[in-house]
Amino acid sequence: MAGRGTPASPAVSALNVICRSRIGAVTRAADLRIFALAGNFLILASPPLLQCWGGGDTWPYLVATLLLAVVNLGLVLLWRYSAANGDAPTASPISHTLAVIVTIAAGCALVLASHAWLHQILTIPNDPQRADMLIVVQQGIRRVVQGKNPYTIYHVP
Question: What is the 3-state secondary structure (H, E, C) of 118-150?
Answer without folding.
Answer: HHHHCCCCCCCCCCHHHHHHHHHHHHHHCCCCC
